[in-house]
Every structure is written in C-alpha cells, then in structure tokens.
Amino acid sequence: MGDDARDDGHDGVGAALLAVRGITRRFGDRTVLAGVDLDVAAGEAVGVVGPNGSGKSTLLRCIVGADEADAGTSVLAGRTVDEREPAIRRDLAVVMDDTDFFPDLSVVEHLDLVARAHAQHDAEEVVNGVLDEVGLTEVSGQLPSTLSSGQRRRLALASAFVRPRRLLVLDEPEARLDVDGVEWLGARLLSEKAAGSAVLLVSHDPALVERVCDRVVRLGPPTDD
Ligand SMILES: Nc1ncnc2c1ncn2[C@@H]1O[C@H](COP(=O)(O)OP(=O)(O)OP(=O)(O)O)[C@@H](O)[C@H]1O
Ligand SMILES: [Mg+2]
C-alpha cells in the first residue's frame, strides 16, 4: 500500500482479516469500552491510541480472547477468536506488556521452542536470523532473568517474529527500546505489512504510529455510568 492510504477505505486490500464489532467492557460502574468497532486487513496496520487508562490494553485483551468482553465480537479470518482454538493461535502473534518467559530456558532455547511449537519451517535458521535482527545473539545463552529490561522487551518481540503469523497484535512494543530499537521496530512493522501480515498496534509513540499505521482508532477516557 502507498503512503496515501490513510483513509477508511479498503479498496484493493480485500475483506478485513480481523473484524471487531461492538466491543463493550465494563468494570463495576465504569464503562471502559463502549461498542468499539475496527477492521484490520492483510497488509494493513491499524493504530490504537489514547491516554493512560482509556482501555487500549483492555481492548487488545478482548480482541485476542485474553479477556471476555461484556458484548461484541472479534473475528479473525472468519473464526470467532478463542485462544483455545489451534487455528486462531496459529494465525495470531501477540506481544502484550506483561510477557512471561520460561525461567529456566535460555534466550535461544525459548525462541526455538516457540518456533517449533508453531511449526515454523527452518526453525533454527529463522531463530538465528531474528536473534541477529533484534541484537540478542551475544546474550542468546543467557536466562531471561539476567537480561536488561530492553533486552527482555526485544525477546518478547522476537518471540512473535520467529513463528508464522497473519495478525500481529502489539501493546506498546516501543516501550523500553532505545532509539535504534524504535527505528528497527518501525522498519520491521513496515516489512510485516509488505509481507501481507496485518498489524494492530497500541502505542504512545506518535512518530511510530505515523510511520507504520494506515488508520488510527482513538479511545477516550472511561466514563462512569
Ligand atoms: N481487571 C480490571 N478490573 C478493574 N478495572 C480494570 C481492570 N482492567 C482494567 N481496568 C481499568 O480499565 C481502564 C483501562 O485500562 P487499560 O489497561 O485498558 O488502559 P490503557 O489504555 O491500556 O492504559 P495505559 O496507556 O496506561 O496502558 C483503567 O481505568 C483500568 O483501571
Ligand atoms: Mg495499556
């Protein structure tokens, strides 16, 4: 898609890979999400922005099935999203802000396990390539607990890039990355789109959103009933 694709049309992109309709989430008397709709097509990136507490992470959790919305649907490639469904897990790579790692597996062992569990072809080659790309080759033998916070973030991102995926869902992927890391991330997300993946990106970095996203969904502050 060209740079002029910042509109609501999907001309030339086809039907949405991800179709989210009417997602509503309440916590007690507070309505955090009131009927959110969004579509993400293959080869397209959609940004979700808004102030702290506006419901961005809650929206992503409802979309990927990690939280249950009070109303609404999230449909990926024609299937209602259910993280227990193998076909959904095959297509969906998620990096939230609370990624856990196996405490007793090294960086390379962790990535190798993720790649093989998701039936990645040429797992060893893909893992080595991604390790190099995210700058973790030198620490690939270390346990996650011994990494710096930015290196752990890079490992979380690497876990999504070593496996097959059709939709990449990212919650503040730029957090804790250095300047070069954010530059790399932007280029990586553009190549994801070019390869035909769909990207749903929550971010507090306006430059990253501007660079990567074709459209932006803006959430407002939560309201009390
Ligand atoms: N399990 C929960 N129980 C009660 N309230 C919750 C729960 N999860 C989220 N909330 C509330 O929902 C609102 C939205 O939270 P959420 O984490 O989605 O915000 P966010 O937009 O991701 O914010 P940030 O930019 O800080 O990451 C907040 O007011 C939060 O307190
Ligand atoms: Mg959040």
UniProtKB/TrEMBL annotation:
SUPFAM superfamilies: P-loop containing nucleoside triphosphate hydrolases (SSF52540)
InterPro entries according to UniProt: AAA+_ATPase (IPR003593), ABC_transporter-like_ATP-bd (IPR003439), ABC_transporter-like_CS (IPR017871), P-loop_NTPase (IPR027417)
Keywords from the UniProt entry: ATP-binding, Nucleotide-binding, Transport
Boundaries of every ABC transporter domain copy: 18-225
GO MF terms, alphabetically ordered: ATP binding
Keyword Transmembrane helix: no
PROSITE patterns: ABC_TRANSPORTER_1, ABC_TRANSPORTER_2
Protein family: Belongs to the ABC transporter superfamily.
Protein name, entry field: ABC transporter ATP-binding protein
